[in-house]
Write a structure and sequence with these properties.
- This protein is mainly alpha-helical.
- It is 81% helix and 0% strand.
- The chain has five helices and no strands.
- Helix 2 packs across helix 3 and helix 3 packs antiparallel against helix 4.
- It starts with a helix and ends with a helix.
Protein backbone atom coordinates (compact mmCIF):
# COMPACT_ATOMS: atom_id res chain seq x y z
CA UNK A 1 0.00 0.00 0.00
CA UNK A 2 2.86 2.40 0.79
CA UNK A 3 4.55 1.40 -2.47
CA UNK A 4 1.39 2.11 -4.43
CA UNK A 5 1.00 5.52 -2.76
CA UNK A 6 4.51 6.46 -3.88
CA UNK A 7 3.80 5.27 -7.41
CA UNK A 8 0.63 7.32 -7.47
CA UNK A 9 2.52 10.49 -6.56
CA UNK A 10 5.10 9.82 -9.26
CA UNK A 11 2.39 9.21 -11.83
CA UNK A 12 0.70 12.46 -10.82
CA UNK A 13 4.00 14.36 -11.15
CA UNK A 14 4.61 12.82 -14.57
CA UNK A 15 1.15 13.84 -15.74
CA UNK A 16 1.91 17.39 -14.61
CA UNK A 17 5.05 17.39 -16.73
CA UNK A 18 3.14 16.02 -19.72
CA UNK A 19 0.69 18.91 -19.42
CA UNK A 20 3.64 21.33 -19.38
CA UNK A 21 6.23 19.99 -21.87
CA UNK A 22 8.39 23.09 -21.41
CA UNK A 23 8.91 22.13 -17.75
CA UNK A 24 9.75 18.57 -18.77
CA UNK A 25 12.39 19.81 -21.21
CA UNK A 26 13.81 22.06 -18.49
CA UNK A 27 14.04 19.15 -16.05
CA UNK A 28 15.67 16.92 -18.68
CA UNK A 29 18.13 19.68 -19.54
CA UNK A 30 19.05 20.17 -15.88
CA UNK A 31 19.49 16.42 -15.52
CA UNK A 32 21.86 16.44 -18.49
CA UNK A 33 23.88 19.29 -16.97
CA UNK A 34 24.17 17.38 -13.70
CA UNK A 35 25.33 14.21 -15.49
CA UNK A 36 27.94 16.15 -17.48
CA UNK A 37 29.15 17.77 -14.26
CA UNK A 38 29.55 14.34 -12.60
CA UNK A 39 31.44 13.01 -15.62
CA UNK A 40 33.79 16.01 -15.75
CA UNK A 41 34.36 15.86 -12.01
CA UNK A 42 35.32 12.18 -12.19
CA UNK A 43 37.51 12.87 -15.21
CA UNK A 44 39.33 15.63 -13.33
CA UNK A 45 39.73 13.40 -10.27
CA UNK A 46 41.07 10.56 -12.44
CA UNK A 47 43.56 12.90 -14.03
CA UNK A 48 44.61 14.24 -10.63
CA UNK A 49 45.12 10.69 -9.35
CA UNK A 50 46.99 9.79 -12.55
CA UNK A 51 44.42 7.12 -13.45
CA UNK A 52 44.12 6.63 -17.17
CA UNK A 53 40.49 6.14 -18.13
CA UNK A 54 39.10 7.06 -21.55
CA UNK A 55 36.66 9.97 -21.31
CA UNK A 56 34.17 8.12 -23.51
CA UNK A 57 34.19 5.24 -21.04
CA UNK A 58 33.46 7.67 -18.20
CA UNK A 59 30.60 9.10 -20.25
CA UNK A 60 29.14 5.60 -20.36
CA UNK A 61 29.76 4.40 -16.80
CA UNK A 62 29.44 7.45 -14.53
CA UNK A 63 25.65 7.79 -15.07
CA UNK A 64 25.33 4.06 -14.28
CA UNK A 65 27.46 4.41 -11.16
CA UNK A 66 25.45 7.40 -9.97
CA UNK A 67 22.17 5.62 -10.66
CA UNK A 68 23.28 2.52 -8.75
CA UNK A 69 24.40 4.68 -5.84
CA UNK A 70 20.82 5.92 -5.49
CA UNK A 71 19.49 2.46 -4.62
CA UNK A 72 18.43 2.80 -0.97
CA UNK A 73 20.55 0.02 0.54
CA UNK A 74 23.24 2.19 2.15
CA UNK A 75 23.78 5.65 3.56
CA UNK A 76 24.29 8.12 0.71
CA UNK A 77 25.36 5.32 -1.62
CA UNK A 78 28.59 4.58 0.30
CA UNK A 79 29.83 1.13 -0.57
CA UNK A 80 27.45 0.69 -3.47
CA UNK A 81 29.07 3.49 -5.48
CA UNK A 82 32.56 2.19 -4.67
CA UNK A 83 31.68 -1.38 -5.63
CA UNK A 84 30.15 -0.25 -8.92
CA UNK A 85 33.18 1.92 -9.68
CA UNK A 86 35.64 -0.91 -8.98
CA UNK A 87 33.59 -3.33 -11.09
CA UNK A 88 33.05 -1.05 -14.08
CA UNK A 89 36.50 0.57 -14.21
CA UNK A 90 38.05 -2.87 -13.85
CA UNK A 91 36.64 -3.56 -17.33
CA UNK A 92 39.20 -1.16 -18.82
CA UNK A 93 42.08 -2.38 -16.70
CA UNK A 94 41.96 0.08 -13.81
CA UNK A 95 43.28 -1.67 -10.67
CA UNK A 96 40.72 -2.04 -7.89
CA UNK A 97 42.69 0.18 -5.47
CA UNK A 98 42.85 2.98 -8.04
CA UNK A 99 39.15 2.69 -8.87
CA UNK A 100 38.30 2.74 -5.16
CA UNK A 101 40.44 5.87 -4.69
CA UNK A 102 38.70 7.55 -7.59
CA UNK A 103 35.28 6.69 -6.21
CA UNK A 104 36.14 8.02 -2.76
CA UNK A 105 37.55 11.25 -4.16
CA UNK A 106 34.51 11.58 -6.42
CA UNK A 107 32.23 11.16 -3.41
CA UNK A 108 34.11 13.59 -1.18
CA UNK A 109 34.51 16.43 -3.72
CA UNK A 110 30.82 17.47 -3.67
CA UNK A 111 30.83 17.18 0.12
CA UNK A 112 33.74 19.64 0.37
CA UNK A 113 31.91 22.08 -1.87
CA UNK A 114 28.73 21.71 0.17
CA UNK A 115 30.65 22.17 3.43
CA UNK A 116 32.22 25.37 2.10
CA UNK A 117 28.79 26.65 1.06
CA UNK A 118 27.35 25.75 4.47
CA UNK A 119 30.16 27.62 6.23
CA UNK A 120 29.52 30.72 4.13
CA UNK A 121 25.78 30.46 4.74
CA UNK A 122 26.24 30.16 8.51
CA UNK A 123 28.76 33.02 8.60
CA UNK A 124 26.38 35.24 6.66
CA UNK A 125 23.48 34.24 8.87
CA UNK A 126 25.50 34.92 12.01
CA UNK A 127 26.50 38.33 10.66
CA UNK A 128 22.83 39.24 10.09
CA UNK A 129 21.76 38.24 13.61
CA UNK A 130 24.46 40.31 15.40
CA UNK A 131 23.16 43.65 16.74
Amino acid sequence: SLLYAGLGRREEALRGYLRRPKDLLGALGMSGVIQITWILMFAAAARGLNIRVPLLFLVLVIPIIMLVSQVPVSLNGWGVRESATVLLLGRVGVPAAHALSLSLVGAVMPFIGAAAGAALFLARRRKKTRP
